Amino acid sequence: MQGLRVGGFTPLTTIDFPGRLAAVVFCQGCPWRCGYCHNPHLIPPDAPAERSWQSVLDFLERRRGLLDGVVFSGGEPTLQAALPGALSAVRAMGFETALHTAGMYPERLAAVLPLLDWVGFDIKAPATHYDAVTATPGSGERVARSLELLLASGVDHECRTTWHDGLFGRDELGRLGASLARRGVRRWRVQACRMPVARA
Predict the structure, then answer these.
(1) Which of 85, 104, 114, 139 has its CA 20 to 30 A from that of 93?
(2) Is Glycosyltransferase among this UniProt entry's keywords (predicted)?
(3) For residues 24-46, average pLDDT
């Protein structure tokens, strides 16, 4: 298996995988250009790796029985073809697995859902604002399909939206939440965007 390209690593978190003590693997690379991105160093897919995937596996081997799970975050983890193999390797070590994703690759998300215990799913905006927020044409349609797949899978999850009134209005935020509820989303969290942004 080609090793996962690791852009960062957190050895212990209590907040990124609900109810579990976990490590976080930050995967290098993201094709979107959201203006408020808080991990811009992870955007370039060809940036030098922060550490090797093997070093992560070695660390996890030493933490068996001490950690409950491993979170794959980013960047966008599903950008990397090595993700399914990495998830399988971590599960074989006895860890639960979580994924933070923006849902930009529906087919790749479908392939890894059977390997996941929890998903943190980013909903960037209402459909009419998606392309402007992500600076990527067609992004909203792909996310809608990924959300359908996630809801149908039965995998435990939470949807999150980073919001600033420079992105879209408060009324639109409320309508977004109502729309998600109608689709079957039971947990949706709004987190404040702490950077000034131009209105999309």
Answers:
(1) 104
(2) no
(3) 93
